[in-house]
Design a protein that fits this description.
By secondary structure, the protein is of the alpha+beta class. It is built from 11 helices and 8 strands. It has 3 domains: about 1-175, Jelly Rolls (Sandwich); about 185-230; about 240-295, Homeodomain-like (Arc Repressor Mutant, subunit A), CATH 1.10.10.60.
Length: about 300
C-alpha cells in the first residue's frame, strides 16, 4: 500500500519522492532497490532488512528503526523465507525544516514570514531502538494505514506529529554528542556519526567473522583511535559489544527454534562451541541447554 500526501507548501502535479510525503506499507519475502532517497524512516517487522550506505551497513528489524537523510544513496535488500512487513515514511523536501522553525521561531517571526527558508536539518544516520518518543506515533500510524488511506487530513496531522517527535529524538542525540571527547563541535558530531556507523555495521554483520580492523575501516579511523573512542562512547570495547549482540541473538534462537546448540553457536558468529558455551554460561548464568529448557 502506498499513501501519498502533499504536506509542505502548495500542491503540485509532481508527486515523486521528495515532492510529496509517501507512506509505504507492504509485506513480502524479497525486495531489492538502489537509488537516492529523501529523508526517511525505515521500519521492518517479522524479519531483517539490510541497508548498504557507502561503507556502512544497517540491519533493521522489530527492535529498531533507521533514519536516512535526504539525498542519501543506498541499497536496500530483503531476502527472507518468512513474510516480512515493511513500514517506511519518505518525507517531502523542506518538511523537517518547516516544522523545526514552527517549534523554535518566535510567534512574531512566524506571523511576519510564515514560510521563511531555514538551514537543512542533518539527522544522524543510524539505527534507533524503538523508544517512547517517536515509536508510539510510528506504530499508531502503522496500524491505521489500512483504514485511513482516504482520510488525508487525519493522516497529514499524524505525519506532522511524527516529524515533531523525530525532531525531539534528534535533539536528544545532539545532547549525547556533547559527551564525545573532542574540542570542536563539528569534530564531536563527525566522530559520533563514525562510531555509530561502525557499531551498526557490527550489529548487522554479527554472524560474520568481523575484526577490529574491519570496524575501524567502516568508521574511517585508525585502529587505535577507534578502539579508544569506541570504549569512551559506549563503555565497552568493540569485541565486548559484538559478543553481547551474538549472545542476545543466541538466546532468541534457543527459545524460538529447535536448532541444536552447535548450530546456534555457528549461526551467531562463534567459531568454537566450547568458547560459546563458556561465554554463554558466564554472561547468562546457565548453559545454553538449561536456558532453553527454563525459557520453554
Amino acid at each position: 500500500m502506498l499513501i501519498t500526501l502533499k504536506l509542505n507548501g502548495d500542491s503540485g502535479e509532481q508527486v515523486g519522492l521528495g515532492q510529496a510525503t509517501h507512506i509505504l506499507h507492504e509485506r513480502g519475502f524479497r525486495h531489492r532497490w538502489q537509488g537516492v532517497g529523501p529523508l526517511s524512516i525505515k521500519c521492518f517487522f517479522g524479519g531483517r532488512a539490510f541497508y548498504d550506505v557507502g561503507v556502512g551497513r544497517y540491519a533493521v528489524d522489530d527492535s529498531s528503526y533507521l533514519i536516512l537523510n535526504e539525498g542519501q544513496t543506498y541499497l536496500v535488500a530483503v531476502d527472507s523465507e518468512t513474510e516480512i512487513e515493511s513500514f517506511c515514511i519518505f518525507f517531502e523536501h523542506g518538511l523537517a525544516e518547516s516544522i523545526q522553525r514552527s517549534l523554535s521561531a518566535k510567534t512574531s517571526q512566524l506571523l511576519d514570514d510564515p514560510v521563511h527558508p531555514t538551514r537543512a536539518t542533518n539527522f544522524f544516520e543510524k539505527t534507533y531502538p524503538h523508544d517512547e518518543v517517536l515509536s508510539p506515533a510510528l506504530l499508531r500510524l502503522r496500524t491505521q494505514t489500512s483504514c485511513i488511506k482516504h482520510e488525508t487530513a487525519g493522516v497529514a496531522e499524524q505525519l506532522h506529529e511524527v516529524m515533531e517527535r523525530l525532531l525531539l529524538v534528534h535533539a536528544g542525540v545532539r545532547r549525547q554528542v556533547e559527551s564525545i571527547p573532542a574540542l570542536r563541535a563539528t569534530s564531536r558530531e563527525e566522530l559520533y556519526r563514525r562510531l555509530h556507523r561502525a557499531r551498526d555495521y557490527a550489529a548487522a554483520c554479527f554472524d560474520e567473522p568481523i575484526t577490529l580492523n574491519d570496524m575501524a575501516r567502516v568508521a574511517c579511523l585508525s585502529t587505535n583511535h577507534f578502539l579508544r573512542t569506541f570504549k569512551q562512547a559506549f563503555h565497552q570495547t568493540p569485541h565486548q559489544y559484538l559478543t553481547r549482540i551474538r549472545l542476545e541473538r543466541a538466546q532468541g534462537l534457543l527459545v524460538q527454534t529447535d536448532q541444536p546448540v552447535t548450530d546456534v553457536c555457528f549461526a551467531v558468529g562463534f567459531e568454537s562451541l566450547g568458547s560459546f558455551s563458556w561465554l554463554f554460561r558466564q554472561r547468562v548464568g546457565v548453559p545454553p541447554e538449561t536456558y532453553r529448557r527454563a525459557k520453554r
